[in-house]
Structures are given as C-alpha cells and as structure tokens.
Amino acid sequence: MQLLRSYVADFVSLIFPRLCVACNNTLIAGEELMCTDCRYNLPLTNFHLQPDNIVARQFWGKLDLQQAYALYYFNKGGKVQNMVHQLKYNDRPQVGNMLGNLAGKQLLQNKGYASVDLIIPVPLHTKRLKQRGYNQSAHFAEGIAEVLDARVENYNLVRSVATTTQTHKSRFARFENMKEVFKLSHPQSLANKHVLLVDDIVTTGSTLEACGNELLKVPGLKLSIAAIAYAE
Asked: What SUPFAM superfamilies does this protein map onto (predicted)?
C-alpha cells in the first residue's frame, strides 16, 4: 500500500509539479513549500540578535517599541518578493504560516519576545479581505504564535477606512494616507499586555506606525513589531 501511494504521488507530481515558493524549482521528497537551498540561502536579517537594527531605528522617536524585527531582506525581483507574492496573490496562505514558524524560531533566541502575550496582525479592510479570502499577516501571526505559545488576536484592531494603494506614494504621502485608519474595538482587553504587531513588508513603516500609535493609547501596553521582510 505504501509503495502504491508513492507511485501515485510521483505520478501526480509529474502532472502537477510541486514548486518552491521562492525560486520556483521543483521540490524533492521531504521538502514542503520551500526548497532546502532557499531555506538556507535566502537573505536572513538576523535582526533578532541586533537590538538597534535598521527596523528598530526606523521607529525611533515615532513609536515606543520593546523589540523590532524582520525575517528577510526584501530585494525587488528577488526570491523573497516572489515568495511574498505567492502568499498575497496566489492563494497560498500556508506560506505565511511557514514563514511565521521560521520567524518564531528566531524570536525564541531573544528573551525580549518571551513576554509576548498577544500577536496582532495588521488588519485588512473588510472589502480587501473579501477579495483575497484571507489576511496574509494573520497567517504569519499564526505561525509565530505556534512557536512562541502566544495567542493571535484578529478582531480587536480593525481597519475602518479602505485606503488607496501605498506602492507609489512618497514617505509623507504614505503617512498621511494612514492617518485615523485603524481603530480598536475592545482596547480595555489589551491593558498591560505585551503585544507583537506583525505585517508582511516594512518599507516606510507608515502602516505599522499608524497601528502602533493606536495600540499605544492603551494603558500599560508594551509594543513590539515583526515582519516577513524589510525593504530598504
């Protein structure tokens, strides 16, 4: 029976090859979603080992953060961009969970994340969520939560305004575009909690800043941030 299953799996893979979400090469037996070469050679930041890393410095004077982190460096046209594209636009939410697991294992090495109580993904507006079917940042959050033994809170922080795309906006325009976009439905439940706010890509940081400012209105709340990638 096991041999038959193996033959069937091999036959299916000939017709529908399993491809790495980063480099698009064919996966071999034992590999899931990402090939071994990409797992070891994608551009990790190791920001979990650098308290004053680039992401942390980006928010100095803007947000009172405990920790700041991104898993990978983002290069236009590179493998990380391809992977994030698969996650966001090709109906591959499981990629987010995988990346969250990888990030969580790194965060375990930094005692500053040990006190995280809740993980909150940057929310999508209900219209965008309906179109996509899932929030890519929520799946990244779920992957981290599995490793850190924390809880994901999906419904407290909400995006009340459907903003236009940020892609071609200047830093100032992005910041203006995000003003008063996010609201908390039950802020009292976050009092005195250490919240890890997660997003997919950090560019100017305007989205995380807008979310963070809303969260930090809660008495006693401590805030950290994490993302899949940092784009210089």
From this structure: PRTase-like (SSF53271)
